[in-house]
């Protein structure tokens, strides 16, 4: 399918398709004979995934990270997208009701309380992002644990001592602002340290998901905070900044 044909089919402009190609999000095939670019059925399906993610307010950078992740499961993603778009539909319906009530309030037909004026608004964290962290973040942790379980007792002791030293080093900067240059420089070291010791299994999204788990899972929090009170929370915030910036 040619770019123009795909644009007409989906409503996505040719210019947008060119942008997706430029950033490596959706790359068409090139015909060696005539030089034309065309999209295969697989790429058409991938565009559908991209548009579902966009409808759930995911930025393009994060969409690319998720689709490029080796652990990405399309069937799981589709199920989640269906559920979350259904929830979004309910939220929109609630907001429409609030809007209708507001119109009546303006006409003097009813009187709304301040609480009622904001019914349906939700500025919390993107729900799909939380699900993605569980899917792609947790899987990286499981893979890391599997790699450790293959080690001998001596190798396990060596890596434990190495990790303890790493967390002691991180604890020393936990009072810094998570977005500070020094903190982010340490996050860059930590990101590569984890991948060097676990076989390059952490994508940026998985790295961020790991940081979320440091706070969400009490076992992680307890083990990490033994190196310094508040270290788990600091790492969560600093790892989030690092993943978003890179």
Structure notes:
The chain is an all-alpha fold and 246 residues long. The chain folds into 3 domains: 3-55, Multidrug-efflux Transporter Regulator, Chain: A, Domain 2; 74-117, no CATH class; 127-245, Globin-like (Orthogonal Bundle), CATH 1.10.490.50. It has 12 helices and 2 strands. A hairpin with a 6-residue loop joins β1 (29-30) and β2. α3 (41-55) packs parallel to α5. The protein is flat, with a radius of gyration of 23 Å.
Quick structural overview:
This protein has 246 residues and is mostly helical. It has twelve helices and two strands.
Keywords:
Multidrug-efflux Transporter Regulator, Chain: A, Domain 2; 246 residues; two-stranded antiparallel sheet; mainly alpha; 12 helices; single chain; flat
Task: Count structural domains.
Answer: 3
- For the record, what is the CATH homologous superfamily label of the largest domain? Antibiotic binding domain of TipA-like multidrug resistance regulators
Helix and strand sequence: HHEEHHHHHHHHHH
Terminus-to-terminus distance: 33 Å
Could you name the ranges where pLDDT drops below 50 across 5 or more consecutive residues?
none
- Give the spatial strand order of the biggest sheet: 1-2
Keywords: Activator, Coiled coil, DNA-binding, Transcription, Transcription regulation
Organism: Listeria seeligeri
Coiled coil: 89-116
Domain HTH merR-type: 1-69
